Amino acid sequence: MDSLSVSKLNRLYWLGRYYERLSTTLSYLWDWYDVMIDGEINYPDFCRKLSIDCCYKDDKDFMHNYVFDKNNPDSLRTVADAMLGNGMVLREIIGSRTLAYLELAVMGMKSAEESDSPTLPLQRVIDFIMAFRGSYDDMIDDENVRNIIKCAAGVERLSLYLRLGWHLDSVKSEIGKLMKRMNRTSLQPSHASLQVLLSAQNPETPEERKKLLDAAENLFVV
Q1: Which residues pair with 189 in a beta bridge?
Q2: Rounded to two decimals, what is the model's pTM?
Q3: What separation in angstroms does the CA of 7 have from each of 10, 12, 86, 103, 106?
Q4: Which InterPro entries match (predicted)?
Q5: Ramachandran region of residue 101, left (φ > 0), alpha (ψ -120 to 50) or beta?
């Protein structure tokens, strides 16, 4: 495996976490646009589960400002900008063609904000992120680099599933994929966190989910 500076390893890791946070959270919120037509969404519970400030006036304010407000440190627009910022610094590693999909995703966020019907442009954001995943998997020769990004994305996906109580039947499978990818990287996992994840049971209780969440979040220090 080629050696990576601490700075580049950190940026690769957070690139993976940010793109997965953007994609998975948008997918989770997708149905909420339809729900708001006839009812209310439980955005305070969502904020509580993600441990973010519930600073929104109502449903519409949440769906606009949580998704699009670039001055909100918790917003998905802020996540998208951080994703692109890491990608730009890593241009020489991931390649300009792969980086272009991140740029298109951020442009899609801007387009969605200006639209009266944001669901279609937000779907394009998800599509561009999927294209980014396919591009880096195909275009980056260094297996270590590819799997650092994949491990980070896996940690983020696992974290969101556990926080939101979503796709819990996939948790053990996600842990298994994370373990396989981790072994193909230069990442050094926490032994204690690794043991918790390897002995994971079905996360049926809040206590088990909290234990697995803490282990996932502390698996790597980069």
Answers
A1: 220
A2: 0.95
A3: 5, 9, 11, 22, 23
A4: DUF403
A5: alpha
Q: What average pLDDT does this structure show over 86-103? A: 97
Structure tokens, 89 = 């610094």
For 106, other C-beta atoms within 10 Å of its C-beta total: 19
Cα diameter, the chain: 54
Q: Judge whether residue 157 has pLDDT over 70.
A: yes
Chain-centroid distance of CA 27 in Å reads 11
Output phi, psi for 33, to 5 deg: -60, -40
CB-CB neighbours of 74 under 10 Å? 16
Question: Using only C-alpha atoms, what is the Rg of the chain?
Answer: 18
Which two structure tokens, joined as six digits, stand for 37? 């037509």
pLDDT in tens, 21-72: 999 999 999 989 888 877 889 999 999 999 999 999 999 999 999 999 999 9
Q: How many whole angstroms separate alpha carbon 70 and alpha carbon 75?
A: 7
Q: How far is CA 162 from CA 24, 62, 118, in A?
A: 12, 22, 27
Q: Select the more confidently predicted residue: 101 or 221.
A: 101
User: Could you tell me the two tokens for 111?
Assistant: 């387009």
How many angstroms separate the first and last alpha carbons of the chain? 17
Residue 116 gets which letter from DSSP? S
Give me the amino acid identity at 200. A
Distance CA 86, CA 156 (A): 16
Token readout for 41 is 């969404």
Nearest to 67 by CA among 137, 118, 4: 118
What backbone torsions phi and psi does residue 203 show, to the nearest 5 degrees? -80, 65
